[in-house]
Amino acid sequence: MSKSISKKIISWYCKYQRNLPWRNYKNLKDRQYKVLVSEFMLQQTQVNTVIPFFNAFYKKYKNIQSLSKTSNTRILKSWQGLGFYRRAKNLHATSKIICQKHKGIIPSNYKGLITLPGVGDYTAKAILAIAYDKPFLGIDGNIKRLVSRIFLLNSSKNFLNKLKTKVESLIINKNNSELMQGLMEFGALICKPNNPLCTKCPISNECQTYKKGKLNIKKKFKKINNKNYFVIVSKKKNKYLMTYKHELGPLKEFINFPIFVKKYSIKNSIKKFKFNNLKYIKKIKIPISNQNCNLFLYSASTTNKKLIKDYMYVNKNQLEKKFQSSFVKKIMEAIK
Questions:
Q1: Among 24, 180, 273, 325, whose CB has the most other CB atoms within 10 angstroms?
Q2: CA gap 319, 316 in Å, rounded
């Protein structure tokens, strides 16, 4: 039954696959590079979000060599807006290792891939299957959901082992690249988390969950945390006080306005920087990762002639050249 399902998935995929930029390539080497970059970008990010970032990134770095020779700052700048910046660092580090230790050729074996920064079990298997058409299948959220429904797997003690066994049973001798992409595509477009298109599903006759009428869909709600911060907006002529040091973890390495956790006394910060003329501006809310950030904006001036280490006044026009977060833009809009 498993091989019959695989063939139907491939047949469906060849007919209905989306035209995605990483699926169009000049040659095999270009294909392998595009798969590598797209797999890093697609970690924790949806396809439609990734497409414009991938196109812009590929336009700048057309191969593994150009990527490896670029500075980390430029890579982060090119990644700006996509989020989860550790992926960009890992991709950059991986490109350097591939060029230095593998002569610019992306490893075609599991052992060589799994040691690369940012490459876990899923990414390694996805690259082997999609880029090299090898008999591997990585398990992402779409494949996990699809296979669980087909074989009516439940969240029992041995669920992961059962899932792995069933996924491996789908592997075929050739066309694993189409199979891997087909399974993901099928999970995204047909066997969706909510409102799956069972009536349009070519494998509904083999789907045990559908046949037994046990398709119970439970909508998962992501817990969102609310966190409060206060922001100091200190301006001298056309320059703003900026820093790379702040207390908002996800914005590490971005240049930003001074941001402090609001539970700490604002008086401590005022004393530290010798701020005066403190005035409340407004509150803005910015979602980031799994939290809503409530930013309480204050304008202030300082009599401190010598700036504290890691703080600087930056011309507004120069900010565009810096690796800045979306926070800077939104704060700028709020204080206009």
A1: 180
A2: 5
Rg (C-alpha) for the chain, rounded Å, is 25
The enclosing domain of 42 has a CATH number of 1.10.340.30
Is 74 within a domain? Answer: yes
39 counts as catalytic = yes
Enclosing domain of residue 304: 225-334
Tokens of 221: 């709600």
CB 81 within 8 A of CB 326: yes
Residue owning tokens 């010798």: 274
Report yes or no on 240 lying in a domain.
yes
In a domain, 43, yes or no: yes
* Other CB atoms within 10 Å distance of the CB of residue 242: 21
Give helix 72-79 / helix 47-60 axis angle, nearest 10°. 140
Q: Which of 39, 168, 178, 206 is catalytic?
A: 39
Is the pTM for the entire model greater than 0.90? no
Mark whether 242 and 169 lie in a shared domain: no
Q: 110 with 66, same domain?
A: yes
The CATH code of the domain that includes 232 is 3.90.79.10
Residue 220 lies in a domain: no
Same-domain check for residues 173 and 42: yes
Tell whether 137 and 46 lie within a shared domain. Answer: yes
Tens-place pLDDT, residues 34-65: 999 999 999 988 999 999 999 999 999 999 99
Supply the DSSP string of 168-227, one letter for each residue: HHT--SS-HHHHHHHHHHHHHHTS-SSS--GGG-TTTTT-HHHHTT-----------EEE
Contact (CB, 8 A) for 253 and 210? no
Strands 225-236 and 259-261: antiparallel
% pLDDT > 70, the chain: 88
- Residue 61, judged by CB atoms within 10 A of its CB (0-12, 13-18, 19+), counts as buried
DSSP per-residue letters across 10-60: HHHHHHH----GGG--SSHHHHHHHHHHHHHHTTTS-HHHHHHHHHHHHHH
Domains of the chain: total: 2
